[in-house]
């Protein structure tokens, strides 16, 4: 069967991250050798398509990825359109139906996947070197000429609608979407990637076709190939398969997608009357993906809430028993980003957990990070970095992010240097610069009758009903 990758830029996936880290992460990793991004070539075809080729001959495998600069930020009033389009691309091409494509990939033990995130939509395939001649043409077909077969599209949309309804039964799945909506208001970055029940239910085949026509065009896309191949032969094959792809009209314009709103402390209280626990997120503005602070902030966040032995997890789980896990994370986007601390606790312990989380967070300023703690986090981050880019699939994903989000390779090549250069004094300056200290934003998902008075302690409260469609307050 095909595997469908789930792409998410919401913070909901981080809610239990600290609790799920393996026991091996409790000890800092040994310092690692320097890491450089393997060499790759970037060219542009006459039709505007960017082509990125990276040779990797360790294993006879190839990872290919098509990346389109379009995602939830381009949904407009049709939330979920990019997401539906990204998945519907796998439903077959004009020449081959879904069953034929599935059979071609499954027979060869290959994988085909697709999906859409906030700012990019991707199609990717992984297969053996010897299968490139058979599978690359099918890959090119579904990218350029998807059929969006009506019956299959309806089934896919209905499954997604059912998934959205079920998700609200689990606050940890949707808290991050409320948080994004709260911080970005009516800006494109607030658009829920998966859509809402109402918006998704209203989407038609023509909407999906229109999205594909507007954004799937060579001057708004890149084809990335990583693996065991002859570069000259691969260039010829890519040119043959994608060189006739046409772009009609002017290229899409990438507008201002929004900045986090944090002018005053606010609380969104999302009422789930049958809840026995409170899921919470606390934070504010973060960074863009290409920010100069991206690398050192990974070290600082590791101390606060980025691993099992972090301050937040120690205090909220280990020392107090208020939760099974607590963490923090920066979620960068191309133009801006968010920072969040997240956890959950029994309803009756909501205030205690929130106060302890805030007290722990304030240690960044009250006590700072000493050299021993910083060195431990640096070693851990350095040890975790190279394994993130070992496989062709991982490297193709990285190159896709670099293309879609405007990340320079220097950020990867200088990762170890930037980690090593972080001192306690620099850490203090970065904490003051990047971590939001005032006007914190908070999302609480739980039984409002039990935690309403608690919520009012932390800022201006807006109440929402979790059963209502979407992730915004009701319009007055």
UniProtKB/TrEMBL annotation:
<feature type="domain" description="Peptidase M16 N-terminal">
    <location>
        <begin position="55"/>
        <end position="192"/>
    </location>
</feature>
<dbReference type="Pfam" id="PF05193">
    <property type="entry name" value="Peptidase_M16_C"/>
</dbReference>
<keyword id="KW-0732">Signal</keyword>
<feature type="signal peptide">
    <location>
        <begin position="1"/>
        <end position="24"/>
    </location>
</feature>
<protein>
    <submittedName>
        <fullName>Insulinase family protein</fullName>
    </submittedName>
</protein>
<dbReference type="Pfam" id="PF00675">
    <property type="entry name" value="Peptidase_M16"/>
</dbReference>
<dbReference type="GO" id="GO:0046872">
    <property type="term" value="F:metal ion binding"/>
</dbReference>
<dbReference type="InterPro" id="IPR007863">
    <property type="entry name" value="Peptidase_M16_C"/>
</dbReference>
<feature type="domain" description="Peptidase M16 C-terminal">
    <location>
        <begin position="203"/>
        <end position="379"/>
    </location>
</feature>
<dbReference type="InterPro" id="IPR050361">
    <property type="entry name" value="MPP/UQCRC_Complex"/>
</dbReference>
<dbReference type="InterPro" id="IPR011249">
    <property type="entry name" value="Metalloenz_LuxS/M16"/>
</dbReference>
<dbReference type="InterPro" id="IPR011765">
    <property type="entry name" value="Pept_M16_N"/>
</dbReference>
């Amino acid at each position: 069967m095909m595997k469908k990758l789930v792409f998410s830029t919401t913070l909901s996936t981080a809610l239990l991250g600290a609790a799920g880290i393996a026991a091996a992460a409790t000890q800092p990793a040994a310092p690692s050798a320097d890491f450089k991004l393997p060499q790759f070539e970037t060219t542009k075809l006459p039709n505007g398509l960017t082509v990125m080729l990276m040779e990797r001959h360790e294993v006879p495998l190839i990872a290919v990825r098509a990346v389109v600069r379009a995602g939830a930020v381009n949904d407009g009033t049709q939330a979920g359109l990019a997401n539906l389009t990204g998945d519907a691309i796998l439903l077959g091409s004009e020449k081959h139906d879904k069953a034929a494509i599935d059979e071609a990939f499954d027979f060869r033990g290959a994988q085909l996947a697709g999906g859409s995130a906030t700012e990019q939509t991707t199609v990717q395939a992984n297969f053996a070197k010897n299968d490139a001649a058979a599978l690359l043409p099918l890959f090119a077909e579904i990218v350029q000429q998807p059929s969006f077969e009506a019956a299959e599209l309806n089934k896919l949309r209905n499954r997604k609608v059912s998934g959205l309804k079920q998700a609200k039964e689990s606050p940890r799945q949707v808290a991050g979407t409320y948080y994004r909506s709260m911080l970005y208001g009516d800006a494109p970055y607030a658009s829920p990637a998966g859509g809402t029940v109402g918006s998704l239910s209203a989407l038609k085949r023509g909407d999906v076709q229109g999205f594909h026509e507007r954004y799937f065009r060579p001057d708004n896309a890149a084809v990335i190939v990583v693996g065991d191949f002859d570069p000259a032969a691969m260039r010829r094959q890519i040119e043959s398969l994608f060189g006739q792809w046409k772009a009609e009209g002017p290229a899409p314009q990438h507008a201002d997608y929004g900045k986090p709103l944090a002018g005053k402390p606010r609380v969104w209280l999302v009422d789930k009357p049958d809840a026995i626990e409170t899921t919470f997120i606390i934070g504010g503005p973060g960074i863009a993906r290409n920010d100069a602070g991206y690398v050192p902030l990974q070290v600082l966040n590791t101390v606060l809430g980025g691993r099992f032995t972090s301050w937040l997890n120690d205090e909220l789980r280990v020392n107090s028993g208020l939760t099974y896990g607590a963490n923090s994370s920066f979620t960068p986007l191309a133009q801006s980003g968010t920072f969040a601390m997240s956890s959950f606790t029994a309803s009756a312990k909501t205030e205690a957990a929130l106060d302890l989380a805030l007290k722990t967070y304030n240690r960044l300023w009250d006590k700072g990070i000493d050299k021993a703690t910083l060195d431990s986090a640096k070693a851990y981050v350095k040890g975790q970095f190279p394994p993130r880019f070992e496989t062709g699939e991982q490297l193709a994903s990285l190159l896709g992010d670099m293309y879609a989000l405007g990340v320079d390779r220097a950020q990867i090549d200088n990762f170890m240097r930037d980690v090593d250069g972080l001192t306690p004094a620099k850490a203090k300056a970065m904490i003051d610069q990047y971590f939001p200290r005032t006007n914190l934003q908070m999302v609480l998902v739980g039984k409002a009758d039990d935690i309403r008075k608690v919520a009012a302690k932390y800022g201006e409260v807006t109440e929402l009903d979790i059963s209502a469609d979407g992730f915004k307050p009701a319009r007055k």
